[in-house]
Amino acid sequence: MRITLNLLFLLVSITSSYAQTFISEILENFNNNTIEYVSVEKLNDMGKSLLLDAREKEEFEISHLKNAIWIGYETFEIARVLKLVPNKEALLVVYCSIGVRSEDIGEKLEKAGYTNVKNLYGGIFEWKNKGYPVYDTDNMETQKVHAYSKYWGSLLTNAEKIYQSKKETIGQKEQ
């Protein structure tokens, strides 16, 4: 029994550190570091900030950080954010799956005059990998996270991975 628990602990540790290393490498390759990162630990300890979810709507509907506002990526409109957040000095923390799309959106927010924009390092994947809670559209805690694709899903190690929209999942259950 003790050997089994030790092997399980080792496997979880290796998997988690592998995902962390891989996230770091992807962020180095895809991002320009134009938006300052905030770690999941620091975000969890931070005071008042507005969380902006830069993923697609179907990803947000599966789960998101508590009180996050969906702003999208492909459908992002700065005019909508300007209405939702008129204070351009407000602390905005943008996130996506791992932090690539959120950097793009962060750049657009800064270009629009927002002065206190941060990018959540590792995004919702890192948040969930570290054991922090995520919530569904009914504001109930869930273990589900939209994994975007099998490739990106390999970076998500501490959640139930979902690869389809909530509507598709509901439709399959009804059949």
From TrEMBL:
Single GO term (MF): catalytic activity
Domain of life (superkingdom): Bacteria
Family matches, as Pfam families: Rhodanese
Domain Rhodanese: 45-136
Signal sequence bounds: 1-19
Alphabetical list of PROSITE patterns matching this protein: RHODANESE_3
Keyword hit for Coiled coil: no
Keyword Electron transport: no
Name this protein carries in UniProt: Rhodanese-like domain-containing protein
